[in-house]
Amino acid sequence: MALSTLTTVATLNPFKPSFTFKPISSSSSSSSSSSSFHKDKEEAKLSMHSTSSTKRQIFDMGIGLLAASMLISSPLDANATRIEYYATVAEPSCELNFARSGLGYCDVAVGSGKEAPLGELINVHYTARFADGIVFDSSYKRARPLTMRIGVGKVIKGLDQGILGGEGVPPMLVGGKRKLQIPPELAYGPEPAGCFSGDCNIPGNATLVYDINFVGIYSGNRK
After folding, report:
1. What residue segments make up the domains of the chain, in order of their start?
2. What angle do CA 121, 123, 125 make, to 5 degrees?
3. Mean pLDDT, residues 70-91
4. Alpha-carbon distance 19 to 3, whole Å?
5. pLDDT score recorded for residue 90
6. Which residues form the PPIase FKBP-type domain (predicted)?
7. From CA 118, how far away is CA 164, in angstroms rounded?
8. pLDDT in tens, 138-159
């Protein structure tokens, strides 16, 4: 009887699937859910970490830009600014000779051109320092030589004598380079100079050292 029943059931199901379904036990379902939960949790952590890292990078970039802007906008040390502004190449040292006036001079390079003409305009490049070597002025930083009239009191006495010559000092020739050590009495004397708004670049009784490069005679001089 039982066999007959089973045969009938088999005949009524001719399209029996070739695979079988296995029931999922409650423990397996719980394990899968737990695994999925942990996976989602790890992905969430990774996402949060990535977002935090990106925010940190943006924050660090902002701090860097702020620091840079503060550095640019902050005032520099006055001496550093002055030296930077007038920075130039120093001429080699040479042994000074001294005129009766107290002017020290020596030729780094003797020129081969004309002598500096009395009362005429000439072009010179120069670097001016204090006795301690600190630069306070330079034509090189301005990228053009200074045009000045020589020998008629338009510049300090030490430059007139040091370039034009006199009292045992030979005149400079075009193309020449000369170092001058100018005592206070041939420079600005006891009074401060180069003053602006109460701030003076040159103190009183200062000894000055000039590196002079006699570039040429100014072409605009009257014939």
Report:
1. 43-74, 88-217
2. 145
3. 47
4. 24
5. 63
6. 119-218
7. 7
8. 998 888 999 999 999 999 999 9
Check: CB of residue 103 under 8 Å from CB of residue 159.
no
Q: What is the total residue count of the chain?
A: 223
What 3-state class would DSSP assign to 113? coil
The architecture CATH gives domain 88-217: Roll (3.10)
Residue 3 DSSP SS3: helix
Say which residue the tokens 């949790």 belong to.
41
Say how far apart CA 87 and CA 72 lie, in whole Å.
20
Q: Are 208 and 102 in contact (CB under 8 A)?
A: no
Q: Residue 213, class by beta-carbon neighbours within 10 Å (0-12 exposed, 13-18 middle, 19+ buried)?
A: buried
- At 2-33, the pLDDT tens digits run 444 433 333 333 333 344 434 444 444 444 44
Name the pTM for this structure.
0.60
Q: How many Å apart are CA 142 and CA 29, to the nearest integer?
A: 84
